[in-house]
Design a protein that fits this description.
By secondary structure, the protein is α/β, with parallel strands linked by helices. The chain has a single domain (2-201), classed as HUPs (Rossmann fold). It is 40% helix and 11% strand. It is built from ten helices and six strands, in the order βαβαβααβααβααβαα. It has helices spanning 10-23, 46-57, 68-71, 78-89, 101-105, 116-119, 136-145, 151-155, 173-181, 192-200; strands at residues 2-3, 28-32, 63-65, 96-100, 121-125, 161-164. β1 (2-3), α1 and β2 form a beta-alpha-beta unit. The protein binds adenosine-5'-triphosphate (ATP) and magnesium ion.
């Protein structure tokens, strides 16, 4: 599960854990991106966002932080990350990429997006506030690749899209940043350890309010 995680919040964490339990896999990896190329936004540094992910998963063995994009000297391209994972894990290992509905619907803006399903499966998580309203290209992609059988994800290395409805959590990092910027508490929307880190490093308290 990739993302800017600016900051990581309970919507990410609960999603990752519920998917880990549903797939019956040992771990789900959270991978902060270095510098997103398809969106523009003021960001905390990759290292700070990685620190927060590490703090958030520290007491949960089913969740893991992956620093490969943050420490890379290149910009973050999901397709390149998946190619590196594929080289590491071999041709036959199933790889599942976890995307919220908003991220899934934005795929046509991603570099070499049509190759993604040759490298991984995609698990699309419904997200409050985003309905499935695909553009023509995405409707076609879903029609070609959607399955309702989770077993198919574990039996083949790549190529399936599966939609999954989890405990709906209408939390976004945009909302967290806005709360902090307004001098209000984001407590219980993010882990306490992450909130402590944000306060200690005075993150998000002096930026212009963003619209969303
Ligand atoms: P921002 O508001 O800055 O865009 P965000 O909350 O959307 O932050 P991202 O880091 O952009 O967080 O998202 C990383 C991934 O997690 C994306 O695939 C996104 O769709 C998914 N995601 C984020 N929040 C939720 C949530 N509350 N429920 C389900 N999926 C989520
Ligand atoms: Mg987002």
């Amino acid at each position: 599960m990739g993302g800017t995680f600016d900051p990581i919040h309970n919507g990410h964490l609960r999603t990752a854990l519920e998917i880990q339990q549903w797939l019956g896999v040992e771990q789900v990896t959270l991978m902060p991106s270095k510098a997103p190329v398809h969106r523009q936004q003021p960001l905390r540094s990759g290292q700070q966002r990685l620190d927060m992910v590490r703090l958030a998963v520290a007491n949960e063995p089913a969740l893991l932080a992956d620093d490969r994009e943050v420490i890379s000297t290149d910009a973050s391209y999901t397709v390149l990350t998946l190619e590196s994972l594929r080289r590491e894990l071999g041709e036959t290992a199933p790889i599942c990429m976890l995307l919220g509905m908003d991220a899934y619907l934005s795929l046509p803006h991603w570099d070499r997006w049509q190759e993604l399903l040759t490298l991984c499966h995609i698990v699309v998580v419904k997200r409050p506030g985003w309905t499935y309203e695909p553009c023509e290209q995405m409707a076609q992609l879903s029609a070609q690749h959607a399955t309702e059988e989770m077993d198919r994800l574990l039996q083949s290395p790549a190529g399936c899209v599966i939609f999954r409805e989890l405990t709906p959590l209408g939390i976004s990092a945009t909302q967290i940043r806005a709360l902090i910027n307004a001098g209000r508490s984001p407590r219980y929307l993010i882990p306490d350890a992450v909130w402590d880190y944000i306060q200690h490093n005075q993150l998000y308290s002096e930026q212009k309010t963003e619209g969303k």
